[in-house]
Specification:
The chain has 81 residues and is α+β, with helices and mostly antiparallel strands. The chain contains 2 helices and 4 strands; from the N terminus they run E-H-E-H-E-E. Belongs to the sulfur carrier protein TusA family.
Length: 81
């Protein structure tokens, strides 16, 4: 994980498949303040492209980093507005 940001909240969606990681990520981001960072921990390999695509097409969020750690995928999403 990068030291350029601090995680404000962690969302554990391990064991859940599409579309739930995206649905729960959006709900969690809505509850954050601007500049806060959400860490999403998933086991669905599709979450890598799903969260990237969602963040790219969604105003007010930025995907900072994605990390693949074995069977676990970590996504760091910042609320920008």
């Amino acid at each position: 994980m990068s030291s350029e940001y601090t995680v404000s909240e962690t969302l554990d969606v391990k064991g859940q498949s599409c579309p739930m990681p995206i649905v729960k990520t959006k709900q969690a981001i809505d509850d954050l303040e601007a500049t806060e960072v959400l860490e999403v921990i998933a086991t669905d390999s599709g979450s890598m492209s799903d969260i990237d695509g969602w963040a790219t097409g969604t105003d007010g969020v930025e995907l900072l980093e994605q990390v693949e750690d074995g069977d676990v995928y970590k996504h760091y999403v910042q609320k920008t507005s």
